[in-house]
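tool=predict chain=A
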Amino acid sequence: MEKPYTCGKYLCYRIYSVFKKLKKTSTRPIYCLNLSTCILYKKIIRNTMTKKTLIISGILGCTAVIFGAMGAHALKKLITAEQLISFETAVKYQIYHAIAILILGIIYKNSPSKYLKYSINLFLAGVIIFSGSIYFLSLKDLLGFKFINYLGPITPLGGILLISGWIFIIIEGLKMKEN
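tool=predict ok
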């Protein structure tokens, strides 16, 4: 019996058969014992994750450049110097982590790991919370949102998520086997 897109394991072949009948793919984990050589795993999981990280890093990078240009040109005269410095800090952290997500996505395609996936997700959540809250806090006077002061205590939570993402990269490095 031909077993296309499978590594030959019974469970992996059964999952492929179900996908083929339904004519769709899924991002659910495939519980095959040999994930490093499982073609089905590579086709579905790795490519989906790589696609998502490219899109996420592209969106974060693009918006960081837009916000950076907006801060350098349009906002200079509209907000205080202290608010502008905070705004620029948010842009810097966003672009740094957009690049990190891009690199992690490339590494993940070649060497998938749950720790790399955790890092990507933590970086995304951290950027949204950290940079997002700083953007709103910097622009609260300009936007007329005086009630946004409650975002101040949320900003460190975003920083903790970013730090956690870097810690998972360290864990992945420690668990990595040398070739």
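The chain has a mean pLDDT of 80. The chain has one domain: 45-175.
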